[in-house]
Fold this sequence. Notes:
By secondary structure, the chain is an alpha+beta fold. It folds into 2 domains: 7-120, Aminotransferase class 4, branched-chain amino acid transferase, N-terminal domain (D-amino Acid Aminotransferase, Chain A, domain 1); 134-289, D-amino Acid Aminotransferase, subunit A, domain 2 (D-amino Acid Aminotransferase, Chain A, domain 2, Alpha-Beta Barrel), CATH 3.20.10. It has 6 helices and 16 strands.
Amino acid sequence: MTSKYGKMWVDGAITDSNDANIPIMTHGLHYASSVFEGIRVYYNKIFMLDEHIDRLFLSANLIGMTIPFSKDQIKNATLEVVAKNDIYFGYIRPVVFRGSEEIKIAAPNTTVHVAIAVWNTNTIEVPKDLSKGYKLNIGDYKRPSKECLPVQSKCAASYAIATLEKHKALAKGFDDSLLLDFEGNVAETTSSNIFFVKDNKLYTPLADCFLNGLTRQKIIFIAKQLEINVIETKINPNNIYEFEDCFVTSTTLDIMPVSSINKIIFNRHNITKRIYNKFYEDCILAYKSS
């Protein structure tokens, strides 16, 4: 059977994805001792590869795992698996996880494995239609404080409540769910950071209890290039109605406009359009000619 994942890189070697298997008793499967990345490919070129691999190593370190390869080895492996699969527009998923030698909470002597998968995605040959956007509800689960979870680690444990809330949102006819933090302030969606526009300024929650996304960082950088005032602050969900526009950012979505949060409707603001156009030109289209 042909797999959409083609060739993978697993622990130092290229293998067919159909042959890339792990034991049922893998520690990472039972105890969430795994971290991962999501990386985009635009026009055969990898977006922010260095930054993603740096974060992969940080994520592993934050949950007590040492990756048995150097950063350069992982970068070269990522380039290799993209080339082997001839990816033009695509998505890369490196994952690091503990093996199956011990199935108990403390398993410091288990082997740490690394795998890199890649697959094709839709092309982005033309700019996105910003008139269309996500419909969000507000989720029930909250993002925990940094004392409860290593929040700057892109670890599997962080995504349990995300999966629950995404499923509930889809079942209710929404595209995603907005999560609040442990204090009841706006945090993020299940897998994206969020921005609001008001009075020609860009607002975004402080990344103190959720992942400071690389696309989020890029958007803040672009906004400052465009001389747009960026305010990172606590945002009370009762004040969402005061904002004129809203969008979310992630590796998967790049920039996705938000049409509504529950019954609050947003209209596209010029700031959203300017930021998206700059991102598209600098971070996607520029790869076509480079």
